């Protein structure tokens, strides 16, 4: 089986990225692995979709650093193939990283992923579902019971009214963004820099305001969902508690947050069950949900990370389990008498 991983750039990949662990697991299960970046597609005049790929050596890897060295090798084989020669295309890019410097690249995965799916390639997460989730506005379509109230606006007066209503403080962040970038806590409307913060965030577009949840001081819980259900092996869930660095309100690992073991309660599983129907409907194969208290703060459908941290804490490598699910989908598509819709297949 040939599995393609679509990323922002090969140079930007790290040895302990979730994508690297997934690619290692695929190689260790004797699959061919190729990498694709936003500029690697060519829709030809005859209607065929060509893909210019980097081919990983057919080697088994134990250490992510060894795999990363192979991925970054300047002599890595380049090949041009027809997209139909790919069995599964995993869209693992973060659009927010390209929005400013390479806006043409931000949604290339969705655009060409659609074309690939139309030609019979299994594309995960489903590109039509990802198109609905291009910013945090997607989160507002989930049941109200699982999410805090939010304001999405660029209007300073609306923001002031929202802050005044929530006396324990408000979190402001860009509607489009990831990794804890440009996240601010506002305690009251009397803060001198409120106007400047709103103005700065508005440069990038709309902003989202959410009430500050006191439990956030203790961090949040990142829980992975696979095929709409909590990812689990034996009694261990693919989950971690992300604790903010001292003096920081962000728990993102990229923002120097630290990872600790997480206890998954029935209440957390109930939250996951509330979001499952929509995730399945939208073809969201692999998702990370971020939980504080009794609310979900974000649903991460683009390249959710943390598998390495979870592996370090629990001793369980979930990447092989995820690749097994990809194998199952390819087999289902191959054995089916009729072609299964990609969005449906994505969570089977």
TrEMBL record:
Its cofactor is Mn(2+); Mg(2+). Its EC number is 6.3.2.3. Residues 137-327 form the ATP-grasp domain. Keywords: ATP-binding, Glutathione biosynthesis, Ligase, Magnesium, Manganese, Metal-binding, Nucleotide-binding. One of its GO terms (molecular function) is ATP binding. It comes from the Bacteria. InterPro entries: ATP-grasp (IPR011761), ATP_grasp_subdomain_1 (IPR013815), Glut_synth_pro (IPR006284), GSHS_ATP-bd (IPR004218), GSHS_N (IPR004215), PreATP-grasp_dom_sf (IPR016185). GO terms for cellular component: cytoplasm. Pathway: Sulfur metabolism; glutathione biosynthesis; glutathione from L-cysteine and L-glutamate: step 2/2. Pfam families: GSH-S_ATP, GSH-S_N. Belongs to the prokaryotic GSH synthase family. This is Glutathione synthetase.
């Amino acid at each position: 089986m040939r599995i393609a991983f679509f990323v922002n750039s090969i140079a930007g990949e790290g040895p302990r990225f979730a994508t690297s662990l997934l690619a290692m697991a695929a190689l260790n299960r004797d699959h061919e692995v190729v990498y694709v970046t936003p500029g690697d597609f060519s829709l030809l005049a005859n209607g065929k979709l060509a893909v210019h790929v980097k081919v990983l050596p057919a080697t088994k890897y134990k250490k992510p650093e060894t795999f990363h060295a192979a991925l970054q090798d300047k002599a890595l084989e380049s090949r041009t193939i027809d997209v139909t020669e790919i069995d599964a295309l995993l869209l693992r890019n973060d659009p927010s990283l390209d929005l400013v410097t390479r806006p043409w690249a931000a949604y290339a995965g969705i655009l060409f992923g659609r074309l690939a799916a139309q030609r019979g390639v299994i594309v995960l997460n489903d590109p039509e579902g990802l198109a609905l989730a291009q910013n945090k506005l997607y989160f507002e379509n989930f049941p109200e019971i699982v999410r805090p109230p939010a304001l999405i606006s660029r209007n300073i007066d609306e923001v002031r009214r929202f802050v005044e209503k929530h006396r324990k403080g408000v979190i402001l962040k860009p509607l489009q963004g990831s990794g804890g970038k440009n996240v601010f806590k506002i305690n009251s409307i009397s803060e001198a820099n409120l106007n400047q913060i709103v103005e700065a965030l508005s440069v990038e577009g709309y902003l989202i305001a959410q009430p500050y949840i006191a439990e956030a001081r203790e961090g949040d819980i990142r829980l992975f969902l696979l095929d709409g259900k909590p990812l689990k092996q034996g009694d261990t869930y693919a989950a971690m508690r992300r604790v903010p660095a001292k003096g920081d309100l962000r728990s993102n690992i990229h923002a120097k947050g630290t990872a600790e073991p997480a206890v998954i309660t029935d209440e957390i599983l109930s939250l996951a069950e509330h979001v499952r129907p929509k995730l399945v409907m939208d073809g969201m194969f692999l998702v990370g949900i971020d939980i504080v208290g009794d609310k979900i703060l974000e649903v991460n459908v683009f390249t959710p990370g943390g598998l390495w941290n979870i592996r370090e804490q629990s001793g369980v490598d979930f990447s092989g389990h995820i690749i097994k699910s990809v194998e199952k989908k390819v087999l289902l598509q191959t054995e089916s008498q009729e072609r299964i819709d990609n969005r449906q297949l994505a969570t089977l």
